[in-house]
Amino acid sequence: MIMYFTKGFLLLHTLLAFLLPQFDALQDTLTISKPIRDGDLLVSNGETFALGFFSPGESTNRYIGIWFYKAPEKPVAWVANRDNPITDTSGVLSIDLHGNLVLYGEDRKKSIWSTNIVTNSNDNITLAQLTDSGNLVLFLNETSEVLWQSFDYPTDTFLPSMELGLDRKTGLNRILTSWKSKDDPGIGNFSFILNTNSSSPELFLYKGNILWWRSGHWNGIGWSGIPTLSSNDSVMNFNLFNNEYETSTVWGLSYPGASLSSRLVVNGSGSIHRFVSAISDQEWDILGTVPLDRCDNYGKCGAFGKCQVQNCTEFECTCLPGFEPRSPSEWSARNATSGCVKKHGGASICKGVAEFVKVENVKLPDSSFARVDEKLSLKECERRCLENCSCTAYGGIGVKEEVGCLRWFGELMDTRVLDGGQNLYVRVDAFELGT
């Protein structure tokens, strides 16, 4: 009796093994023999991120992307074919004979997207692995040399350990660009870049070709125009690398051991949101948003203007010391974009004695127009600025003004009052001060 029961049980077990679908363990690596088809997933080793096909919002188009695997709402962090969707479920992501990642639709002879790399190796066997940082890495199987990574081609999301900015060795400049809409991940109107064309890099947000917002200069511990990022209780910890090899910024979590997911996203309405979520949470918390208010809009008060958020009845723009509105009629109409000019013309500033007036608690002007001296004391900075008639202002790099300074030559643009801001020393004729 026992023998018949045992044989029957084994027969049933064998039959079920054939009838039930066989699910492999979660895979984090794509190989030439294991492509990803619509409906398949790659899942990172710690089950933090997933890669597969998805349809955003109410769209039926299909895209290959990376998203948070277990976080609330499973937000998408990266999209490969963002401007070239697949209109059905025929998509396949595979590795071709040249070692490239290639995305095909129904027509297997024409690729929709590819990594388009060229290897010098005789062995073109490559693997693509999804890491727990959300980075898809294509590398040579033989040497583990990285050939391509999704972090170098971001979409709208800035993840911890991802770099933004210029790699001078390769010429690659990594920027974020917004989605067109929640239903379309195509390249939108807003781009978030690290300005690498000056001696003092800043983060810029553009709407098309129009500068929309800036972060303020790097003060040694954070971006000066966002004091909350430099505070001791900030969840995000930014760093800047500016040398012969790169000008880039990277960020991480201040508490790396904590079970937190975090991301920075440029949305289609022109805002940058910082999100964080604990594993146990059912939603994402917004840590901060920029632009924050009207004074965060770049150049709100024009050249040599200063912006301070007022109540609804008061105009937020005034002129810096020694300056007056260029167009009083426009200012009366609350339009300050024409900015301010010297009260008695620019020539007098070098004919007589000039002094500096301290303007406290401000986001210092756009440092694209400034010269940086990292080892200069503030006193020496003042002396050098005074010697040059073109020097319009100076300020310390850091809040404590211990060492390092910025000197502006030409216009002072985008100055605003800011809690936790710094001091700006504006050049003014002694005549204006009544001395």
TrEMBL record:
Keywords in alphabetical order: Disulfide bond, Glycoprotein, Signal
Lineage top rank: taxon: Eukaryota
One of the GO biological process terms: recognition of pollen
Signal peptide coordinates: 1-25
Domain Apple: 350-429
InterPro entries: Bulb-type_lectin_dom, Bulb-type_lectin_dom_sf, Pan_app, S_locus_glycoprot_dom, SLSG/EP1
Name of this protein: Uncharacterized protein
Organism: Quercus lobata (Valley oak)
Lineage: Eukaryota, Viridiplantae, Streptophyta, Embryophyta, Tracheophyta
